[in-house]
Amino acid sequence: MSDTVERHEFGAEVGRLLDLVVHALYSDREIFLRELVANAADAVDRRRFEALTQPIPALPADAAVRILPDKPGRTLTIADPGIGMGKEELARNLGTIARSGTRAFSQALAESKASDRPSLIGQFGVGFYSAFIVAERVEVVSRRAGSEEAWRWESEGQGAFTLAPATREAPGTDIVLHMRADAEEFLEPFRLHAIIRKWADHITVPITIAEDGKDTPANEGTALWRKPKPEISAEDYTAFYRHLGHYFDEPWSTLHWRAEGTTEFTALLFIPGMKPFEAFEGERRSRLRLHVRRMFITDEAELLPPWLRFVQGVVDSEDLPLNVSREMLQATPVLARIRRAVTGRVLSELKSRAKDAEGYATFWQNFGPMLKEGIWEDSEQRKEIAPLLRFRSSAVEGWTSLPDYVARMPEGQSAIYILVGDNIEALSRSTQLEGFRARGVEVLLLADQMDAFWPERLGEFEGKPVRSITQGNIDLSGLGTAPPEGKAPADVTRLLPLLKAALEAEISEVRATDRLVDSAAVLAAPAHGPDLALQRLLRRAGRPVGGENPVLEVNPRHPLVRRLAALADSGADLEEAAGTLLDLARVQDGDVPREPAEFARRMAAALASSL
């Protein structure tokens, strides 16, 4: 090997990824061309934009993505005059990928249906690696716009790649696929034309395929969003949606309109029909594409707030200059008006579609947690988002909304009651619900991670405060019919201070409650500070909980509490019994005993003595 050739090992995560891509997606091989052509078109768009703001050569007038099949040589070349890559970019972009993305990708493959798997490639930003589905060796020759140097990247996809100096007359990138023997169908021009028509017809960069010694156009290359709506078929919309988001499904909703007046723009937006697989944890930003008079400018203009980041599409402005910089985008009032208008239109669409309960349930299960983020962080839109939220309930089947809950509230109920936890099944059996169920009071059950946070920000809905039933001293005496009397409540006057003294380090207060029916005790959070669900979440994350210790509420009608009250009156030592009572309350609430081994010992002893 020449001294100028550098050999590099792929990161272990890339080797794993290549194996996943090649073997899991082998039956959907044509997607490699969609991905490589889309990457080439993006490179052309980036060069066009950067040439307006940086001292690099402008695109040639006849710029196009060229596909060159060579059947005798068994190679397929995808060439573009785009922004190109330097040595470091080749090593970084083609040699590594975030470990979190690889982990999420493999998990998504395992959980997906076979029909969904082709879309995973594009959604995870690993489209280049799909080349190895059809190629036994891949060469990439690239020259960065503004540089005189070109570099060659080469790999057989077996754990290593090489980098070496190369020559290329103009900026751009050539990807040369040395095709496998069983992939020669992709060297036939008619097959390549069919794939481009299927997946890339709406890419605005011209695409050509070399056949019979000349380049023939392969795509229509029109800006679909600029066409009048009557001229666009449902199939056209779907094809463009799939190109934008690398999806294979149908869009759940399509929004296409032209705004006129103070600010003029055209928008074509899609709400996906399936939940996207997010490759990088923490990537919370809208990726709508901003165009100015058809020219792609950026997908980092954040045209929608992060809580609407699932929306795909294009916004094409008439009122921004072609050479607008990213810094100018953050400051221009035109873009602020576009953001408000686009956000308002998406919310209007969701309100309209929410009238179809069954169809909206599909959307909610895919993207509901993101709307809850909007309640937490967007004070301007909070009241608009709230009616769009959906919940499980202790009283009705299926999904319900805040307006429906308020409409069902009985006379005398002044608050909207919620219970937050880890899963709906556990919540529906929670001890915390006993008194509410006995009185026919509905409680909304919340089991998303975001549910520990947003209710505090919402505060109230239609004048009704939103209250966690695990927080504060909730008086149920005026709500519904009280539970059956049974035996008279025990006198716990002496018991409560004894329990408080025994548990002083862990409990801020011990009090009697009428919101239990079958259980002896339950925990509650103080009126101020995080509720129990948020406290558990903070502890799991190793974060300080803050605020006061929880409150232990006891049921004076329960046989255990009646027995403890009698022992308290006789002067017995209740320290161990108090600890057991607290641990029982913790277990009922989905938490663990303070000392599991000691708790198990006490339970075993109690069981032995009762047999």
UniProtKB/TrEMBL annotation:
Instruction: Name the family.
Output: Belongs to the heat shock protein 90 family.
UniProt lineage:
Bacteria, Pseudomonadati, Pseudomonadota, Alphaproteobacteria, Acetobacterales
Localization, UniProt: Cytoplasm
Organism of origin: Teichococcus coralli
Which keywords fit this entry according to its UniProt record? ATP-binding, Chaperone, Cytoplasm, Nucleotide-binding, Stress response
* Subunit structure and binding partners: Homodimer.
Keyword Chaperone assigned to the entry: answer is: yes
**Binding of ATP: at which residues?**
35, 39, 80, 85, 93, 100-101, 123-128, 173, 326
CDD domains noted in UniProt: HATPase_Hsp90-like
Its name, as the record gives it, is Chaperone protein HtpG
Q: Could you tell me what this protein does?
A: Molecular chaperone. Has ATPase activity.
Alphabetized Gene3D superfamilies for the sequence: 3.30.230.80, 3.40.50.11260, Heat shock protein 90, C-terminal domain (1.20.120.790), Histidine kinase-like ATPase, C-terminal domain (3.30.565.10)
Region annotated C sits at 537-611
